[in-house]
Amino acid sequence: MRVKGVFRHNVSSKKHRMNVKAIVLSGIIFISTTAMIAQENNAEKIVQANLDAYNAHDIELFMSFFSDDIAMHNFKDSKQTASGINEVRAIYEPYFKASPNLHSKILKRTVFDNKVIDHEYITGASGSSDPFEIVLIYEVEDTKIVKMTAIRKRN
Q1: Are the beta carbons of 87 and 101 closer than 8 angstroms?
Q2: Is position 106 within any domain?
Q3: Is residue 7 part of a domain?
Q4: How are beta strands 115-123 and 103-112 bridged, if at all?
Q5: Residue 67 sits in a domain of what CATH number?
Q6: What is the pLDDT of residues 133-149, one digit of tens each?
Q7: pLDDT tens by residue, 20-74
Q8: Rounded to the nearest 5 degrees, what angle is found at the Cα of 127, between the Cα atoms of 126 and 129?
């Protein structure tokens, strides 16, 4: 039956209701998956921008990606090595000044939810010609890095 240019369909059929439910459920799954991917991509973009600032030795830009209450930890003993933006700046500002050739290359990156795990190869640290490897686990909330955990090789 046609009413004012619109076709009226019998929506009471069980098959049609099941199709509508399947479409709605598919839409919910798609939106949830899209939101999760967006969070992962957002975390990765923030960590990459932070790394780019690190490699450019731009302390102001580098610091802008950390939350005010950033926490830095060692994985081995769970010891907190810095608490808050001022302590992190106190570590990195002199480090950048003492490391004119500082550069980090990502060997492997894994993104999982709001966490980014980077296996890094670092050269030029504190003027040294000896490279080293480190794994950093970044946790991102909204647009800021809130926690960094460092895993170092055994000596």
Answers
A1: no
A2: yes
A3: no
A4: antiparallel
A5: 3.10.450.50
A6: 999 999 999 999 999 99
A7: 555 655 555 545 444 444 445 799 999 999 999 999 999 999 999 999 999 999 9
A8: 115
